[in-house]
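Q: Convert this sequence to structure tokens.
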Amino acid sequence: MSNEKTKINISKVISLDEVSKKISSREPLFSKGLYHWVMFVLSLYTRVREKLNIDYESFVILQVVVSHSLYEINKSGNKTFAELEEQMSSITRKKNINTTKLTFASIAEVLQLPRETVRRKVIALSKKEILTFNTYGGIKLGPSYKTIYKDFVSQTTLDLSSLIKKWEKTGALKTLLELDK
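A:
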């Protein structure tokens, strides 16, 4: 074997440090963006337990009811935070509004949970007046949701804003927005 074939030309050797600097200057580290996301989720989970005093499954059931309410509210156009707060309060005061009825079965289907689990958790949320339900009107937001909207949703919005700012600073937001390209 000749020495010419095994001899390394120094001008063709690329430093691993140089490559990693070039890559990191072009692409943000995924781990930072993921870390910020995980911290957001953990904070949300903790606030659900401590501030709302409910388990996470109940919280997700509540989110289905909120989603249904937002769907109905948005039929009349987009709302500001304050307008939405008034609309949510209005829903909690009305005994029956002209909307499609949300049932235990529909929530169970959306979340792929047993219907009995949904029923038990909705009953527990109704005891706290976070939700209300009856056979005629279905499941709706209860009078205590007004406080949740004002405090919990406001804090979650601030936390989400902070998350997006961190993603923007690290370049993760730009990467996320360009994923489909």
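The chain has one domain: 30-173.
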